[in-house]
Specification:
This protein has 431 residues and is of the alpha/beta class. α10 crosses α12 (298-306). 44% of the residues lie in helices and 17% in strands.
């Protein structure tokens, strides 16, 4: 292996014992300090602070609009050529269809309880804020993923935000039902959506972004609802018998070009069901060739991200699965025989891609499921964005004969020392 390959494309090779749990990557004190300062400023000075930070950090021109209203979004959509518009429309249709199926799978319940009935109903939030990144690359796909899911849930008011929105991003927001677009990114964009600075204050703020977006969402949770952290992209491939190093390299680079902080990683299974001893070298050779063929800034970004990545040589299937559980990746791609069986036995992953034909990029670009997924180990406890992020399961109780339950409630209240609770329950005995 050449020294140039080692310095440019080679990922470090590790064993399971060297793999830290993903939760150790989840906090970013420096980003949280910066985001906190911006949030405090927006809370005090409102839209003026958002604009100043957008001009300073996002490159917003002093004479450019900060708030882009619905008519301008529709004009952006109308300005697209038929091919580009068709791509966006078809992606929106696929995402909308999947989100509608998710919503239809959720049902209200009405069940008998002692002395009456109880249940829950799903109620959408009133306003949703949807972040669409626009830093290194404009991501109209994120506007589609977020706003479309919100509208499928029944949210009436949807606002998008992001830095330097491209015409395609504004068009995607229009297609997805957004009321308008805030041309501000980072912590200032999230703070504006959450606190109502220049746009209506949102009940839920979602969407992928960089470290300051993730930090702002963590700090503002409780002021607004949000999904699990969606920071720098992660892909873990498990490669077993028959895995193609060219396909694996292509998919790793697709994630690496997102961000210099992205984490592309692969578990290469050894032994009779494994990839063979030549696979790691073949993979790195493929990475080198494909990396050299990328344009800029994609090549430089991917080169930096590969240094975050690793190849883990797993001794057997159990060790490969243990590595996946420990890493808890945003994306898990299973290049193994019988991928459904593997998927059923791995709990911690934001989204799973089954087999060599199911490239992770299909998930990025609107096959149907959402591409806003938990990162930094959050797949241990959270799922990807869906209509559920915009819905509340509100419970209800209706009692006709509360005698037995009243006595039980009073008894339990007295165990806890809450006499007023007990007496309130006893008032209902016989009623």
């Amino acid at each position: 292996m050449s020294e140039e390959l080692e310095s440019r494309a080679a990922m470090r090779r590790i064993r399971l014992e060297e793999l830290s749990e993903a939760r150790e990557r989840a906090r970013d004190a420096e980003a949280e300090e910066g985001a906190s300062r911006i949030i405090s400023d927006v809370a005090v000075r409102g839209e003026a602070a958002v604009r100043e930070w957008a001009e300073k950090l996002d490159g917003l021109a002093p004479d450019a609009p900060l708030i882009i209203e619905r008519p301008a979004l529709e004009a952006a959509l109308a300005s697209l050529g038929p091919d580009e518009r068709g791509v966006l429309e078809r992606a929106h249709e696929r995402v909308a269809s999947f989100a509608a199926a998710q919503r239809a799978s959720l049902r209200d319940i009405d069940v008998a309880v002692p002395g009456g009935r109880a249940g829950h109903v799903f109620i959408p939030v009133s306003r949703a804020g949807c972040y669409a990144p626009g830093g290194r690359f404009p991501l109209p796909s994120s506007a589609i993923m977020t706003a479309t899911a919100a509208k499928a849930a029944g949210v009436t008011s949807v606002w998008c935000a992001g830095p330097k929105p491209a015409q395609a991003t504004l068009a995607a927001a229009a297609l997805s039902g957004a009321d308008g677009f805030l041309a501000a990114g980072g912590a200032q964009g999230i703070a504006a959506l959450a606190l109502g600075a220049g746009v209506p204050a949102c009940d839920v703020v979602v969407g992928p972004g960089g470290r300051y977006v993730a930090a702002a969402k963590r700090l503002l949770f409780g002021v607004v609802g949000t999904e699990a952290p969606a920071g720098p992209s992660e892909l873990l491939i498990i490669a077993g018998s028959g895995a193609d190093p060219e396909s694996a390299a292509a998919d790793l680079l697709a994630q690496a070009e997102h961000d210099v902080a992205a984490v592309p990683a692969i578990v290469a299974l050894e032994g009779p069901l494994g990839v063979g001893p030549d696979f790691p070298d073949a993979l790195e050779a493929a990475l080198e060739r494909r990396l050299a063929a990328l344009p800029e800034p994609n090549r430089s970004t991917a080169t930096a991200a590969l240094k975050n990545g690793w190849i883990l040589l797993a001794r057997d299937e159990a060790e490969a699965k243990a590595a996946a559980e420990r890493f808890s990746p945003e994306h898990l791609e299973l290049l193994v025989p019988e991928p459904r069986a593997w998927s059923a036995s791995i709990k911690n992953a934001g989204a799973v891609f089954l087999g060599s034909g199911s490239a992770e990029v299909f998930g990025d670009y609107g096959a149907g499921p959402n591409h806003c997924l938990p990162t930094g180990g959050a797949a241990r406890f959270a799922a990807g964005l869906s209509v559920l992020a915009f819905l509340r399961a509100r419970t209800w109780l209706e009692m006709d004969d509360s005698g037995a339950l009243a006595r039980e409630s009073a008894a339990l209240a007295r165990i806890e020392g809450l006499e007023a609770h007990a007496r309130a329950a006893e008032l209902r005995v016989g009623k």
